[in-house]
Amino acid sequence: MKTRTRIAVITAAGIVTVGAFAGTFALASNSPTMFGPGPGPGPGAMTMPRGGPRDGGCLAIPGIADPSGTLTEAQRSGLAANAEEEKLAHDLYAEFANRYDVRIFDRIAASETSHLEAVRTLLSRYGITDPTADQAPGHFTTPAVQATYDRLLAQGAASQDAALQVGKTVETTDISLLRESLNSLTAPDVQRVYGNLLTASQHHLAAFDRWSSR
Asked: Which residue intervals define the domain DUF2202 in the entry (predicted)?
């Protein structure tokens, strides 16, 4: 894992990095069995909910069967930052679902709720303070995350197309960070969650692409 840490901050103009994000970052997941044991097909494999990933619908059970491992301080910080990023994605998509009559936002927002629960399970397992605890929708502990949310919300409020573009930006950024985070991660439970979240984030991006092309 790279020693330099970072947190991704997305603005209307693009993506910059500030602060201290520990490189362990997760987003979307699709499967009712995504947190089960074992690699590859079987109990630990991703399974698509009814209707498939076309509209971004994802359901997940936050139970994590894999054993815990060892996290560096950077990875512990990144897990806490990840919780805020999961909440950011959820709160954005939920707000866009209220504004626009397109089911993709409702479905992905629902999946983000399950993803945040999974990350919170990891936070509890590793004794890490949850920065999203008791935070109202649209409110964040970290100023950089709050600023990112405010910018993206304003960008997506311009139009439905702009909101879909925000979704694509969020998912593209998440995919990049997840790939980087998985490079040196050794804790089996965190590996399982992050790996499946990476796959699901790719599904979400594909869904946003389909809606943007309509």
From this structure: 83-210
The CA-based angle 189-32-29, given to 5 degrees, is 65
On whether residue 1 sits in a domain, the answer given is no
CA atoms within 13 A on the CB side of 6: 18
pTM: 0.74
**Angstrom distances, CA of residue 94 to CA of 108, 144, 162:** 8, 20, 15
Single out the residue of 85, 57, 92, 94 nearest to residue 211, CA to CA: 57
Q: Which domain holds residue 42?
A: 7-212
Of 55, 57, 81, the C-alpha closest to 148 is 81
Query: Does residue 183 belong to any structural domain of this protein?
Result: yes
Number of domains comprising the chain: 1
Cβ neighbours of residue 42 closer than 8 Å, sequence gap 6 or more: 36
**CATH assignment of the domain containing 99:** 1.20.1260.10
